[in-house]
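Quick log. Single chain, no ligands specified.
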Amino acid sequence: MKVDIVDTLRQSEYTGENRCEPCTVLNLVIAALLGSLVARKSKLGGWVAVSVSVGLIYLRGYLIPGTPTLTKQYLPPTILRWFGKDTEPDIATGFDGLDAADESTTDAAQGATQTDEAATMEDATTSDTDSTTAEQLSSSDDLEDFFVAHGILELCADADDLCLTESFEAAWFEEIETLADEEVSTEAVVEAFGLEDDDRQFDLVTQDEARLLKSESRRIGQWPSRPALIADIAASRVLQSQIPSWDTYEPQKKGQVLNSLRMFLETCPTTGGDIQIGEEVVESCCSTHKVFAVTCEETGERLFEHRVTDVEA
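-> predicted structure:
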């Protein structure tokens, strides 16, 4: 019976790793004030009030109803940082990249050859050849040029926009079908992003609907759903067969390409149903943000998400 009561009171979304420390501190202060007021009439009552309050905070994450919502809306980011909290919720964009040291080394190398790369990129677009160091994929325009040059996107027949070419879409969904009924393995993800030669150990972790790729306990990729991850693996296999130098691309470059390509899906990868595009909300323990989201209409599985402010910028 006691266990049932505890389980009823417990709220895992606000405790453990999801606990909001600022909320906890605020509620502990309130509990102390409440206890001191009660203690003026009864010391025993004061201790009971504090004990019950602390117990509720431990189990529920807060004492005063609505504290998490109020914290997300009104607590300044500066105060959140005092508690070591990231003020930005995790956006499941796909492959994030390797550790900061690798990224800084890559950026330095790219910066040293930026002028040559820009010129070579123009040649690559017209000649339909490519190399990892020859392409700058830092903006949406660069990516669109890349997709068009390699026969991945073309002008839509009925709209002033870009759509998947029939040949690429057919090849992509053929690969998706081979993966849809299989268990997605860590090895398949590692191969898709060219991480086979890395000495680190990688693990694919399921967290609710999301799929996380971790390296030595550090997250290097997060997909909003299983279909999103399957779409990336399948697309990588198609690109490997269609772009001769795909295997030479750095993992970060592959991530840029695959993360963006997923946005052009017009049907859900695993069910074949329609997709819907709109704004949704993602939450961390202490903040909320709107995201631009592409979602499977039938299942609600999210395929792509991006911060609304980033899209507007």
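The first helix runs from residue 2 to 9.
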